[in-house]
Design goal:
16 strands, binds ligand T4K, Aspartate Aminotransferase, domain 2, 15 helices, alpha/beta
């Protein structure tokens, strides 16, 4: 293990020569992908409900046991189209502890996102807080299965039913996960997946809405293609939400390797568990033993009162070592524009969100990460925590010196 003075933040050599990212894409079999791209070029059918899109839709429906999968160009557009298709308007209850695309998909169409606090044990919407926020203007709930872990679907379904609200799920993180014995993708009015390059299963860019509602699926298919029901026949307002054939080809190839991606994520997760054991103030968010999971996020909570060092110091230590850990979803959507201007006091109702945004640290995983990488990453964290006092002192001396340098008056140009 390095001495404190050898840490990269203080001028030592970084633990990694190349950057290790959160969200490094998993890539399936290259030959199969190139074969499919050749097919696509020979066929000259590049987009608009092409054969690869149709094949991927049928395969996802079979995998999730859901009646309809409607592929789209990305998860954000899928959320926007779904919100419109189910008739959301007025106010919609949504977590603030999520990627900003979740509330943006509502605000983009002038639906007001009403931010609701999370349960700190699960990081997902707290159903007790949801009930308190319902007003006569509320038309729905947009809940997020954060970090691949399902929300309290039963409680949210009961609230939506009792109060006659639409219930949709942002399942961007939760592809190939289950809630009990039923796959995510089958709940609420519909669910949305993201297949962005940083997701463990990706289509370069892409997303999907899944639903068991035939009429809704039909509407979604119209809306993602400008409302065209046939040549020259537009029967609905729509936009361009179509997935292209190149993206679908990437998805089909990735789907063949899905079990390998998940096994790798689980193996990495278990390595983190092993190397982080006993580190004070560090807890690794657990995955459920009853639900099936894709293990795609390695999420730590840093409790400064036990670790002796704030999450942000650890983040900087890691970045200096070329480990590009992330503090998703700091600072919480309610502290980003336009929401912080619209709702400057939203934080008063979001104490758990604010607390969590200060504690979470997300670490790299996926097929680009090995056991050796994980051991080295955990060593940096251990170093940071075991030497917290010395590191903070060195840090403040270094920062004071930098401040003094900046405080020096600018040199007066010499007279000509
Ligand atoms: N709802 C939720 C809950 C979401 O998490 C997301 C997306 C959405 C909705 C919207 O779905 P999409 O419209 O995106 O389909 C990323 C992703 O852009 C975003 O898709 C994701 N969530 C979010 C959690 O993370 P950034 O700004 O951190 O991503 P980006 O593109 O800077 O990538 C992060 C790192 O990954 C890079 O620094 C390097 C590495 N990387 C990235 C790409 C794209 C690679 O190594 N190769 C790559 O091709 O937001």
């Amino acid at each position: 293990m390095k001495h404190v003075t050898d840490l990269a933040i203080f001028g030592g050599t970084p633990a990694f020569t190349e950057k290790l990212h959160v969200g490094r894409p998993n890539i399936g079999n290259r030959e199969k992908l190139l074969e499919r791209i050749n097919d696509m070029l020979d066929r000259r059918w590049l987009t608009n409900n092409g054969p690869f899109v149709q094949e991927l839709e049928r395969k996802i429906e079979a995998r999730l046991g859901v009646k309809h999968c409607v592929l789209m160009c990305n998860g954000t557009i899928a959320l926007e189209i779904l919100a419109r298709a189910v008739g959301l308007k007025g106010e919609v209850i949504v977590p603030s502890f999520t990627f900003v695309a979740t509330p943006h998909s509502l605000q983009w169409q002038e639906i007001t996102p009403v931010f609701c606090d999370i349960d700190p044990a699960t990081h997902t919407l707290d159903p007790r807080r949801v009930e308190e926020l319902i007003t006569p203007r509320t038309t729905g709930i947009l809940a997020v299965h954060l970090w691949s872990r399902p929300c309290d679907i039963d409680a949210l379904t009961a609230i939506a039913k009792k109060r006659n609200l639409k219930l949709i799920f942002d399942a961007s993180h939760a592809f190939d996960c289950s809630y009990g014995s039923r796959m995510i993708g089958n709940f609420g009015d519909a669910e949305v997946f993201s297949f962005h390059g940083t997701k463990f299963f990706n289509t370069l860019e892409g997303g999907a809405v899944t639903t068991n509602d035939d009429a809704l699926a039909k509407k979604l298919r119209l809306m993602k293609n400008f409302g065209f029901a046939g040549y020259d026949d537009v029967i609905y307002i729509g936009t361009n939400g179509k997935m292209n054939e190149m993206c679908a080809a990437m998805g089909l190839v990735g789907l063949d390797d899905l079990s390998h991606f998940i096994t790798t994520n689980q193996r990495n997760y278990e390595s983190y568990q092993r190397y982080l054991r006993g580190l004070p103030g560090v807890s690794l968010l657990p995955y459920s033993e009853v639900n099936r999971s894709n293990y795609q996020y390695v999420v730590l909570e840093i409790d400064e009162s036990l670790s002796g060092i704030h999450r942000d110091y650890l983040l900087e230590l890691l970045h200096a070592e070329n480990v590009i850990a992330r503090r998703y979803f700091y600072p919480g959507c309610h502290r980003m524009e336009p929401y912080r201007s619209y709702f400057p006091h939203a934080g008063l109702l979001l104490p758990e969100t604010d607390k969590m945004a200060q504690r979470v640290l997300v670490l790299p995983t996926g097929t680009a990460v090995s056991d050796e990488h994980i051991k080295a990453i955990c060593n940096v964290l251990r170093q940071g925590i075991e030497n917290a006092a010395a590191i903070k002192e060195r840090w403040s001396t270094r920062n004071q010196a930098a401040l003094q340098r900046h405080a020096e008056p600018p040199a007066i140009p010499a007279a000509r």
